[in-house]
Specification:
Radius of gyration: 17 Å
Strand content: under 5%
Largest sheet: none
Shape: globular
Structural class: mainly alpha
Distance between the termini: 14 Å
Number of helices: 8
Order of helices and strands: HHHHHHHH
Mean pLDDT: 78
Low-confidence stretches: none
Length: 204
């Protein structure tokens, strides 16, 4: 993968990690309820789930490419349209927030938190649709698919882990901030996805 392509991917993944989604909300909630150290289990579970979904999506796309490179072009344009649609949904979504607990919070074991993060990542069909739409923009059919998987999945996992850990560590402050400016924040994230969906298929 060329450095220029990887940098575009990094910027896109940062935008995805910062945008509203089930795992971000879970990290925010668990950070507020159980503290950022215990939420590490949630975050790691989510990252493992995302890597599994990336593997399924990328190797499924790879099998399709073996049949015809024409489908890479089709996937890019369909994927771009999906990213635009996703941006519109994010633009219109309500701001994230963490409701104050009504009762004393009971501590949960790390395995339970890990499982919650994992299931949140793999049980949402929108996640699979996103990666099927997103990954073809960065695949080079002439290079090793396994190596590209390592780069794409590894980069995504590191950025997602860092972002969710930051969210969990600052849960109480971020929740207050999102309640105040969350809708404008969603507008910025949504606009970014619309721009990505329009621009990426136009790249060579």
């Amino acid at each position: 993968m060329q450095l220029e392509t990887w940098l575009v991917y990094v910027l896109a993944v940062i935008g995805l990690s910062l945008s509203p989604g089930p795992n971000g909300l879970l990290a925010l909630t668990h950070g507020a309820l159980y503290g950022h150290r215990m939420t590490l289990y949630t975050i790691v579970g989510g990252c493992v789930g995302f890597v599994l979904v990336i593997a399924l999506s990328l190797f499924g796309i790879g099998a399709l490419l073996k049949a015809s490179l024409f489908w890479l072009s089709v996937l890019k344009w369909v994927g771009g349209a999906y990213l635009v649609w996703l941006g519109i949904q994010i633009w219109r979504s309500p701001p994230l927030g963490v409701p104050a607990p009504d009762a004393v919070v009971v501590a949960k074991p790390g395995s339970w938190l890990f499982r919650q993060g994992l299931l949140s990542a793999i049980s949402n069909p929108k996640v699979i649709l996103f990666f099927v739409a997103f990954l073809p923009q960065f695949i080079d059919p002439s290079r090793s698919l396994l190596l590209q998987f390592a780069v794409l999945a590894g980069t995504f996992a590191v950025i997602e882990f860092s972002t969710e850990l930051l969210v969990a560590s600052l849960a109480s402050r971020i929740s207050i901030w999102l309640a105040r400016v969350g809708r404008r924040f969603n507008h910025c994230c949504g606009a970014a996805f619309i721009a990505i969906g329009v621009a990426l298929p136009l790249r060579g």
